[in-house]
Specification:
The protein is α/β, with parallel strands linked by helices. The protein has 7 helices and 9 strands, in the order ααβαβαβαβαβββββα. A 9-stranded mixed sheet has the order 3-2-4-5-1-6-7-8-9, with helices on both faces. α5 runs parallel beside α6.
């Protein structure tokens, strides 16, 4: 594919670019791995009955901040707080953040905001993204509220990118909808690896994470494990207890979030 052709295809909507060319792009794009610079606006879809969404979003946020890839987070000794916003429905389903269970670096640097409605939560998220004294923002909303349409999503993306504050928005019990989020995950809890010394002790937090849409990476499935020191990612084949459904090459680029019944 020539440089002119690549530039032309980059300027066209995904629906107008031939699927064969999109497949070539997806095969050349780097696969996601921990430590890469993430986009400023990500979404994490998760069931509300297992707390996997907020935990995975927090692990991804800490990984990004730890690697020093996001603007002012490169500065040593960054002690800016993390803003955590929940609407009332999310609070009832998943509960408040347990401060004693947070990483030591965040236990005394957490701002927790409870909003009565999804509209108030979106307002709080946008205001938090405008504050550069905040290291990152994690939000939790339930379902597919009317307030969180594509226009609202686009506002969050632009605000996050303009002010350099990253956002991980957890969508509890939600269906995939239109969104301008640059990276979108489906996350579920997965069996933890067995502890080395005490086999009856609880294992480290582990998730099955499906990246079903990303601007800079092809889709894929990982087993994420957060042992406290760094976020690790393994292929599901290395974990026989966890089933995986790989995505066809080029699917995310050609179809976005739409289902392909005939694929």
């Amino acid at each position: 594919m020539s440089r002119f052709t690549a530039m032309t295809h980059a300027a066209l909507p995904a629906a107008l670019v031939p699927a064969s060319e999109l497949a070539r792009v997806s095969t050349r794009a780097p696969r996601w791995r921990p430590g890469l610079a993430p986009p400023h606006h990500s979404e994490v879809f998760a069931p509300a009955n297992e707390a996997s969404g907020a935990a995975a979003a927090l692990a991804l946020a800490i990984d990004a901040l730890r690697m020093g890839r996001l603007g002012a987070a490169e500065q040593a000794g960054d002690d800016r707080p993390l803003l955590w916003v929940q609407d009332r429905a999310a609070l009832k389903l998943s509960g408040r953040p347990y401060r004693a269970g947070l990483p030591a670096s965040l236990r005394h640097h957490l701002i927790h905001v409870i909003c009565e409605s999804s509209e108030d939560a979106l307002f709080a998220l946008e205001e938090g993204l405008r504050c550069r004294d905040v290291a990152a923002v994690v939000g939790e909303v339930v379902g597919n509220p009317k307030a969180l349409d594509f226009t609202a999503s686009r506002r969050l993306t632009l605000t996050s990118e303009k002010h350099g504050v990253p956002l991980w928005l957890v969508r509890l019990d939600a269906a995939h909808d239109l969104s301008s989020a640059r990276m979108r995950w489906d996350v579920r809890a997965a069996p933890s690896p067995q502890p080395c010394w005490n086999h009856e002790a609880p294992g480290t937090p582990t998730w099955r994470a499906d990246l079903f849409r990303a601007r800079m990476h092809p889709p894929g499935t990982w087993i994420l494990n957060d042992g406290g020191n760094a976020l690790a990612a393994a292929h599901p084949a290395d974990h026989p207890d966890v089933s995986a459904t790989p995505y066809p090459v080029g699917l995310a680029f050609a179809a976005g979030d739409r289902q392909l019944a005939a694929w």
